[in-house]
Structures are given as structure tokens and as C-alpha cells.
Specification:
CATH class: Mainly Alpha
Number of domains: 1
Radius of gyration: 18 Å
Helix content: 55-70%
Number of strands: 0
Strand content: under 5%
Shape: globular
Number of helices: 6
Distance between the termini: 53 Å
Largest sheet: none
């Protein structure tokens, strides 16, 4: 079970590395904050792999870690597919958005990449039970929340601000929004 948990962690982590290096657009080159994000991600990712490979935790923890890493990878690749023809810019880029992606996981969450990454970090902590993997969760989540807020502000200043405001009302940021039940006053 430890081998399977290590392999699913490695597969998801490798996918994210591919995204950083080959998928996300960096119009002005990597920003200093993006470099720090990547360095922290590399450090924590390597620690997750080590912690899971050497874990002496219960089988249920490893199974939950496997499931989390599988979901994380699937969500990541689904988000890539939704914007593959016109990749998005990397975290902390200064460009203003010119289009809105509403297909694939973007129909349910506004930040599926950040959601995938967060599930990954949580999965590593659950699988390993390591304190360092636990530390990675709030550190990386804090970075993603900051990046997502900056992206939301960029949309608000862009030529598609109105379209994005409507999208934002309909779609949750990190988790799908529950549908509102229609009441007699809504009709």
C-alpha cells in the first residue's frame, strides 16, 4: 500500500511540475513570487514523497492519501483540458485576463488548479501523518488564496469584468456552490 501511495503522490506531483514548466504562460518570465512558490512546492513535494515512502501509518490513511492524490491529478488534468488550446498565465503574473473559461471543472469552481493542489497537500498529510507534510497545507494554501485573490482583482479590472462578476455569483471559488432552491418569491 505504501508503494501505491508513493506512486500516486509522484504522479500528481509530476503533473504539477509539468504544468509549471510547460503549461502555464509566463509573459514576462517567472515572477519572484512564482519562483518562491515553485521552490516551496518542490521542497514540500519532495518531503511528501519521502514521508509517504517511509510512512508507518495505518492502511486507511494510505488509502485516503491515494484517493486524494488520484482526485487531485484528475482535477488538474481536467482543468488543463478545459484551457489547453489557450493556456492560462502562471500564478502572480500581472497580465489582465481577456477570456473566461467556463467548461470542464471551471463550470463548478473558479480555481480548479488551486483546488487540485490543495487536495494534493492534504492527501500527503493524511497518507504520511508527518508534521512537515501538515505544515505544507497552510503554507501552500495561503499562497494559493493570495494568488486567487490577485486573479479575482485582475478580472475586476479587465475588459470582461461584468462577465466575470456574473460567473463569480454562480460558481464557487474552491468548492462547487450548492444550487439555490427556487422558492415562490424567486419566480
Amino acid at each position: 500500500m505504501t508503494i501505491a501511495a508513493t506512486l500516486t503522490c509522484a504522479a500528481a506531483f509530476s503533473s504539477f511540475g509539468w504544468g509549471v514548466l510547460r503549461f502555464f504562460v509566463k509573459p514576462a518570465g517567472p515572477t519572484p513570487r512564482a519562483v518562491v512558490t515553485a521552490a516551496l512546492g518542490l521542497f514540500f513535494g519532495a518531503w511528501h514523497l519521502f514521508a509517504i515512502a517511509t510512512a508507518t501509518t495505518d492502511a486507511w490513511r494510505l488509502m485516503l492519501g491515494i484517493a486524494a492524490h488520484a482526485v487531485s491529478g484528475l482535477l488538474f488534468w481536467s482543468a488543463v483540458r478545459a484551457c489547453r488550446s489557450r493556456p492560462l498565465t502562471a500564478i502572480f503574473e500581472a497580465d489582465l485576463p481577456v477570456r473566461l473559461v467556463e467548461t470542464g471543472p471551471y463550470a463548478y469552481v473558479r480555481h480548479p488548479f488551486y483546488t487540485a493542489y490543495t487536495i494534493f497537500w492534504l492527501g500527503g498529510w493524511v497518507a504520511s501523518g508527518s508534521i512537515v507534510t501538515l505544515i505544507s497545507v497552510p503554507v501552500m494554501l495561503g499562497i494559493y488564496v493570495h494568488g486567487a485573490r490577485e486573479e479575482e482583482r485582475k478580472f475586476a479590472r479587465s475588459s470582461i469584468a461584468g462577465e466575470y462578476a456574473d460567473y463569480r455569483r454562480r460558481v464557487g471559488a474552491w468548492l462547487p456552490r450548492r444550487s439555490r432552491q427556487t422558492t415562490s418569491t424567486d419566480r
